[in-house]
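About this split. The held-out portion is used to measure sequence recovery: a designer receives only the structure tokens and must propose an amino acid at every position. Recovery is the fraction of positions where the proposal matches the reference. Here is one held-out target exactly as it appears in the evaluation file.
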């Protein structure tokens, strides 16, 4: 694997590469969730590029940019073991040169959920991902469903801006107790880590409410499903729910209105919660595939 930190040098190397190229964009501090994306990219492409860039424009004031965990040597070893071809880790001033002022905004899909909680976040994500797409020119780009709104925003951006690539969204990778893998899990205390699986438990409880009860009863409302999540999370005193959403997967608008049934269009139930200082997100898809 070649580590590349200079974008001019990378552009030269990219011109010489042929065959399908798979991109896995990361902010480092890799875990099994990232490595699952890398393995899928390896299986489906001739060349695999992983980018490692802690993107300042997607962090709001007071968020954890400075404290975001970084360990290039560790990440490098993990990627080498997976047979990645290139690790692209440019410095901030090459990605955002002095005078930078051009941003990508995916309007409606960025508005709710994480977009409402973290103003400007998805503009930062869409901008850097558009830049990474230009820099690496992938045939396929791999993202995790754990960041469900991010996946929707990137998919829309790729379509709207005519990026000639496939956005591949891979299932969330979970610990044995259901906790979605995330670089932020490392901030949890022992007690918070023990409490954290309640988030997935709450999402599953809501999904189970939709399926059995809807069959013979004319369905359940989105608000009933939100209540199931609220009540389940409330059982765990260390977890504080920030929001719960039951939204149509295609628009991420709340699915209020007629009762939901297992035959409703695809839905995403998602939440954000704090355990101590650590903010975690998770989601579950219903009616997909
Ligand atoms: O999911 C992430 O790690 C980041 O949001 C991404 C897609 C690498 C953009 O900085």
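Reference sequence for scoring:
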């Amino acid at each position: 694997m070649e580590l590349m930190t200079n974008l001019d040098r990378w552009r030269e190397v990219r011109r010489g590469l042929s065959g399908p190229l798979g991109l896995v964009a990361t902010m480092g501090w890799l875990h099994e969730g990232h490595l699952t994306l890398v393995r899928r990219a390896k299986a489906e492409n001739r060349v695999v590029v992983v980018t490692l860039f802690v993107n300042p424009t997607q962090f709001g004031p007071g968020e954890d940019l400075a404290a975001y965990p970084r360990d290039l040597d560790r990440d490098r070893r993990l990627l080498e073991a997976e047979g990645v071809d290139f690790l692209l880790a440019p410095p901030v001033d090459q990605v955002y040169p002095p005078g930078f002022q051009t941003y990508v905004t995916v309007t409606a899909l960025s508005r709710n959920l994480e977009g409402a909680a973290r103003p400007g976040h998805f503009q930062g994500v869409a901008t850097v991902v558009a830049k990474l797409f230009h820099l690496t020119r992938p045939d396929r780009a791999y993202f995790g469903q754990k960041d469900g709104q991010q996946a929707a925003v990137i998919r829309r951006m790729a379509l709207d801006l005519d990026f000639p690539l496939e956005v591949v969204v891979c299932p969330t990778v979970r610990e044995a107790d259901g906790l979605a893998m995330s670089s932020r899990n490392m901030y949890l205390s022992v007690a918070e880590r023990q409490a954290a699986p309640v988030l997935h438990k709450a999402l599953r409880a809501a999904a189970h409410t939709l399926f059995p009860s809807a069959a013979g009863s004319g369905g359940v409302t989105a608000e009933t499903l939100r209540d199931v999540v609220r009540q389940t999370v409330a059982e765990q005193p260390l977890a504080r729910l920030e929001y719960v959403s039951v939204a149509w997967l295609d628009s991420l608008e709340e699915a209020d209105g007629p009762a939901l049934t297992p035959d409703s269009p695809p839905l995403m139930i998602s939440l954000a919660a704090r355990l101590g200082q650590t903010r975690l997100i998770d989601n579950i898809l219903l009616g997909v595939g």
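Annotator remark: Residues 198-217 form the longest helix (20 residues).
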